[in-house]
Amino acid sequence: MLNLTLRQIGEQLTELRKQAGYSSYETFAYDHDLPRMQYWRMEKGKVNITIKSLLKILAIHKIGLAEFFSSMRYKKGK
């Protein structure tokens, strides 16, 4: 269950990055002063992301936790 949730969070982060116009996780991480490999692991669901890290990324996209998770729930229901 945890691994599935981490993958879903990663997929949502990937989608947000692409919506922001970044085709590469590396460029996004570099432009926003994020550790590239750590960010890649987050997108792939390979790391237990902290709330602090997630909030930092969501602030870049100008969305909150509720919006982030509600859009995940909507997609899951599709």
Structure description:
With 78 residues, the chain is mostly helical. The chain has a single domain, classed as Orthogonal Bundle (434 Repressor (Amino-terminal Domain)), CATH 1.10.260. The protein is globular, with a radius of gyration of 12 Å. The protein has helices spanning 2-19, 25-31, 36-44, 51-61, 65-77. It is built from five helices and no strands.
Key traits:
78 residues; globular; 434 Repressor (Amino-terminal Domain)
Short account of what is shown:
With 78 residues, the chain is mostly helical. Helices cover 74% and strands 0% of the residues. The chain has helices at residues 2-19, 25-31, 36-44, 51-61, 65-77.
Main sheet characteristics: none
N-to-C series of helices and strands = HHHHH
* Alpha carbon gyration radius: 12 Å
Could you list the spans in which at least 5 consecutive residues all have pLDDT below 50?
A: none
Count helical runs. Answer: 5
* Distance linking N and C termini: 19 Å
What is the CATH top level name?
Answer: Mainly Alpha
Give the tally of β-strands: 0
CATH topology: 434 Repressor (Amino-terminal Domain)
